[in-house]
Amino acid sequence: MRPLRACLGAAAAVALAAAGATAFVAGSASGATTALANRWYAAAPYLMPLDNDPPDPATIMDATGLKAFQLAFVLAPNGGGCSPTWDGTAPVSSDTAVQSVINTIRGKGGDVSVSIGGYGGTKLGQACSDPASTAAAYQQVITKYGLHAIDFDLEEPEYENTAAIHNEIGAAKILQQNNPGLYVSVTTAGTADGTGWFGKQMLLEAKSQGFTPNNFSIMPFDGGFNGAASQTSALTNFNSILQSTFGWDQATAYAHEGFSGMNGRSDTGEIFTQADFQTVLDYATSHHMDRFTFWSLNRDRQCSPPDNGGRTSGTCSSVAQNSWDFAAYSVKFAGATPPTTPPTSTPTPTPTPTPTSTSCKTAWSSSAVYTAGNEVSYGKHNWKAKWWTQNEVPGASQWGPWQDEGAC
């Protein structure tokens, strides 16, 4: 992701749903007490919390219903060493600024994922000696912020470094093993044929290490793209790459595939409007893809004065829009309905249907993939899936993917 982030000097690098959702409490190895369903982490747009005129996440949450944010970026120190920093300058160990942003988001029932890597700076996979030391550096970030999700943004120039990618993929696998339930996304460059040679080599590295994240996401922009049709074509081609690399069928490949777009004018002058986002969103949901995100919330507002696509900015989109127009598509992907006005109170939840005596459906399985309309039984109740879901316990969250159909 994105030459823009380097040339703009990035220094740091979902609402209460319409129903006023609150996060369910869940413990973890890191001691965190806030967790969201995976669907929200999969819908988290990127936010630079320390640079590019960061917007107030609480304002975005109130206006759109967004609950999850992808904070960017964690890098190695600019002066060298294998310890995590925000954009190479602010040590994670002594951070209070990003922690304050996270506290604000969690205070409103949301949560964050942290993204490591990106386009600029030195990555920990380059600076650390092996996968274990790379993982130890990232574990500091997970523990510091009590994370339930992390994103590996592997692209130029790091993904041209075989040793660095070996360290990053190895670290991701270690973190996945040591932090049960951790949502892990891997984001890489997109091309017309899906992803380029280095992206394909990264996938082969993951296969050789036996590592499977929640998704592999591509960024179909800055590569000669022209609107949504070229992006969905790239996603179709990338699906074929995932099938051939891992031996998956088409549905399994889509269930491990993600989209990471760029709202408005890209670094190379491509224009992606709200209509383009809607088209890609329709593609992602109809193919049951795992992730839909974009770079970035810092840009999700109209330039002042409007410049009609004449420049690429880190703080505005260069297309006609209302503030947070693009965030609304992430909210839709997560399965929530964006509010028409900012919520002023928490509505009373819809009561659970009165139990009725009926036969139990097939028992819920943590390893199975369910799509909208699938029915299971769990805890002597039948449940119907509201959207795509995997390993999300029925009834764990009132606002989760399962609808209680009553006792059985």
Structure description:
With 408 residues, the chain is an alpha/beta fold. The chain is built from 12 helices and 17 strands. The strands form 4 sheets. Strands 1, 2, 3, 4, 5, 6, 7, 8, 9 and 12 form a 10-stranded mixed β-sheet that branches. The protein has a 3-stranded antiparallel β-sheet with strand order 14-15-17, with no helix packed on it. Helix 8 runs parallel beside helix 9 (228-246). Mean pLDDT is 87; it is low at 5-32 and 342-357.
Brief overview:
The chain is α/β, with parallel strands linked by helices and 408 residues long. It is 30% helix and 18% strand. The longest helix is centred in the middle third of the chain and has 19 residues, at 228-246.
Descriptive key words:
single chain; 408 residues; alpha/beta; ten-stranded mixed β-sheet; 18% strand; globular
Overall shape: it is: globular
Approximately how much helix is present in the residues?
A: 25-40%
Radius of gyration: 20 Å
Please give the largest β-sheet.
10 strands, mixed
Tell me the fraction of residues in β-strands, as a range.
Answer: 15-25%
Count of runs of 4 or more consecutive helical residues: 12
Write down how many β-strands occur, each being a DSSP E stretch of 2 or more residues: 17
Q: Helix-strand pattern, N to C?
A: HHEHEEEHEHHEHEHEHHEEEHEHEEEEE
Mean pLDDT: 87
Distance from N terminus to C terminus (CA atoms, Å) equals: 49 Å
Low-confidence stretches: 5-32, 342-357
- Specify the structural class: alpha/beta
